[in-house]
Amino acid sequence: MKKYMFAGILMTLLLITWEIVARIVKLGFILPAPSEVLVTLWQLKSELLLHHLPITLSIIAIGLTISLLLGSMLAIWMHRSRTLEQTLYPILITSQTIPIIALAPIFVLWFGYTIWSKVVVTIIITFFPITISTFDGLRATNKDLHELFQSLGASRKEIFFKLEIPSALPSFFSGLKVAVPMSVIGAAIGEWLGAQAGLGYFSRRMMTQFDGAGVFAPIVLLSAIGISLFMIVILLENYLLKWRR
Questions:
Q1: Tell me: the pLDDT tens digits for 40-51?
Q2: Does residue 149 lie in a domain region?
Q3: Does residue 107 belong to any structural domain of this protein?
Q4: How many domains in the chain?
Q5: Is residue 162 part of a domain?
Q6: CA pair distance 167, 195, nearest whole angstrom
Q7: Burial of 98 per CB tally in 10 Å (0-12, 13-18, 19+)
Q8: Which of 2, 27, 89, 109: CA 20 to 30 A from 209?
C-alpha cells in the first residue's frame, strides 16, 4: 500500500487545485469543479448505470475477448512460421499508423449505429499490443532450455505448452495491461462518433448542451472501468505467475 501513497497524495492535491481553480474561474460549462461532477454523477446515476454503462461494458467485453483470441493466434502463427511473420508483421504495423479517429466513421457507415461498429474500433486499438507482446515473449524463449527439452526427447507440442507458453506469459500480461485501458478508449471513441447509447454517446450529448459536469460524469465512470479492469489483470497476473516471484 505504501507504494500507492504518494500517487494518492498527488491525486488529492490535483483535485483540490482543480476545485479551487474551477470555483475561481466560475465557467462550469468549460471547467466544472470535481464536486459539481460528483453531484451530477449522483443525479444521473440511474440513467448512466442502468442504461448507458451496460452498453459500454458490452463493447469492451466483446472487443477485448476477440482481441485476446485474435492477438494470441496471430502471435503463435508468426512464431511458428517465418513466412507468416514476414507477411503479417508489416501489416500489423501499418494498421496502427492510420488514425482510428478517421476509421471510426467508416465503420459506422459499414455497420450502422449497432454495437459492432464500436466493437471493431475497440479491436483495432487493442489487438496490436497483445499480438506484439505475446509474439516477443514466444520469440524470447530461452534457447538453452529449448535445446534441453529437445535433448530430453520432448515433442514440439510439449515444448510449446511447457516451455514457450510459460515463458511468454509475462510479456502477454504486459500487452494485456496496455490493451485493457485502451479498450475503454476505443469504446468511448466509437460511441462518441456514432452511437445511440453508451457513456461516450452520453458525454457527447452533454457537450452539445454545454453541460460541462454532464460531460465529465461519464468520463469518471470510464476511468473507473479502466482502473478496475487493470487491477483485475494485475491480480490475475500475480496469481498465474507466482513462480516468477
A1: 889 888 888 888
A2: no
A3: yes
A4: 1
A5: no
A6: 41
A7: exposed
A8: 109
